[in-house]
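job 3f2a | input accepted
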Amino acid sequence: MNMPRDTVDDEDEAALLARYALGDAGAARLLTERLLPPALSFACRMLAGDRAEAEDVAQEAMLRLWRAAPGWREGEAKVSTWLYRVVANLVTDRIRSRQRRNRHTGGALLELGDAPEAADGSPGVEARLIAAERMAALDLALAALPGRQREAVVLRHLEGLSNPEIAAVMGVGVEAVESLTARGRKGLARALGPYRALMGFEGE
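job 3f2a | predicted structure (204 res):
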């Protein structure tokens, strides 16, 4: 029997995962719509805006979720928290691999100002380029933070998770999350320089 769509949309993630484990393709679709965008966003920020690599990470994390579904036990962890943790671990592996490659190849860091020039002077094009440069500045500043600070800042200020949720993702206490977030914000404020006011770090 098909459930009314509004009931399905309100169903919690663990229940949807249980339904997927029983072969419900609709539950898989709903979970994908609900969980893939934030997982991709988190991975992209952690990987300094590398969209292609972030997509690989997010897809691998979702595959691991599907494999874990048959043995999932409700109450052990929130599904989205579990997924963020998997993404964080995959990203850590990618960053370490990238660092090893850079040491061997002398890979250069991305620089601001690499965006193409506007084809014309229209306000819409100019605004998009300014926004793109701001995001590039933020991605570079995030990439310069120590990994745990970057993770805490992205989860708190870009993904909107609460401190207890971040603590569950990172496997630390709430006080540690608060400390990591505070230090990360200060690091961003220093790295962003003239972009601080635009990014909301002007008071730090």
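job 3f2a | Residues 1-10, 107-122 have pLDDT under 50 and may be disordered.
job 3f2a | closed
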